[in-house]
Write a structure and sequence with these properties.
Organism: Camelus bactrianus
Largest sheet: 3 strands, mixed
Helix content: over 70%
Number of helices: 10
Structural class: mainly alpha
Distance between the termini: 76 Å
Protein name: Olfactory receptor 8H1-like
Shape: globular
Strand content: under 5%
Radius of gyration: 22 Å
Number of strands: 3
Mean pLDDT: 86
Length: about 325
């Protein structure tokens, strides 16, 4: 080990996004606004789906869980980031760091397979509509949801278990604004090759398998839609799938850019920007992506509002 300091670190220092006080204040204001919009948007989506009976369908059942994941996903990262930007309190305990990493990986992996389940749901609805109520039963939907959470749990368990066994004896400064896998691996003073390969395989399998499921589903959907002679039928199919495709493209694009590459190619500036996008921006955008282009959600919001106004008048 040479002259290395073998004392295990008890806490880490998050380097953050910038050292400039002016930029930190601007980012704090921007991220706080985005976080509030994320909370209101996703909580509002869950509430509308719960209150309106016409949205009690498999598609909106999955969408309510996506909103829950996005709300949780942002909450795992954003509050600590806001604290660091406002107070320069960059220290985080070892336990809190690994806890943040665990939930970050857990929620991210779960969302991958939830998006796959949503693609499968659209495949059944468009390619096999007569059997849709039977195939997408409540039992099947619950099975897909529980399976997504279970895979997320296993992914995060393997990830954190591998990293927690490393020794950090050279530096405790994480070159990031939250506890992420590659920046933590870079601090280890022990050999990380085997762990990097294991994490790459687990992460890559999660992304590739879920992405293949989505791709195959949409190949069949596209084939069915192109065979449809009705213009209105095509428009309805594209409108129901367009929002999901947009959300999938944004989410997977940033994830693949950040994680499906060797840890040595980690770039502080580029990867931090990508991380801001999928931890703060995407959870804020998803409620708008799935509602602004969706007449059913707009109509449900009107019905819920009218019902609330009607109940007030009766009082």
């Amino acid at each position: 080990m040479g002259g290395r300091n073998n004392t295990q670190v008890s806490s880490f220092i998050l380097q953050g996004l910038t050292d400039s006080a002016g930029i930190r204040l601007a980012l704090f204001t921007l991220f706080l606004l985005m976080y509030l919009i994320t909370m209101l948007g996703n909580a509002g989506m869950i509430l509308i789906i719960r209150l309106d009976l016409q949205l009690h369908t498999p598609m909106y059942f999955f969408l309510s869980h996506l909103s829950f994941l996005d709300l949780s996903y942002s909450t795992v990262i954003t509050p600590k980031t806001l604290e660091s930007l406002l107070t320069s309190a960059k220290s985080i305990s070892r336990m809190n760091c690994f806890t943040q990493l665990y939930f970050f990986v857990f929620l991210g992996a779960t969302e991958c397979f939830l998006l796959s389940s949503m693609a499968y749901d659209r495949y059944v609805a468009i390619c096999n509509p007569l059997h849709y109520p039977v195939v997408m039963s409540l039992r099947r939907c619950c099975f897909l949801i529980l399976g997504s959470y279970l895979i997320g749990f296993l992914d995060s368990f393997v990830n954190v278990l591998c990293i927690s066994r490393l020794h950090f004896c050279n530096s405790n400064i994480i070159q990031h604004f939250f506890c992420d896998t590659y920046p933590i691996l870079a601090l280890s003073c022990t050999e990380t090759h085997d762990i990097e390969v294991m994490i790459f395989i687990v992460t890559g399998t999660t992304l590739v398998v879920s992405l293949i499921t989505i791709s195959v589903s949409y190949v069949f959907i596209l084939s069915t839609v192109l065979k449809t002679t009705s213009t209105s039928g095509k428009q309805k199919a594209f409108s129901t799938c367009g929002s999901h495709l947009l959300g999938v493209t944004i989410f997977y694009g940033t994830m693949i850019f950040t994680y499906l590459k060797p840890s040595k190619s980690y770039s502080l500036g580029k990867d931090q920007m990508a991380s801001v996008f999928y931890t703060i921006v995407i959870p804020m955008l998803n409620p708008f992506i799935y509602s602004l282009r969706n007449k059913e959600v707009k109509n449900a919001l009107c019905r819920v509002t009218q019902k609330r106004d009607g109940s007030r008048q009766l009082k």
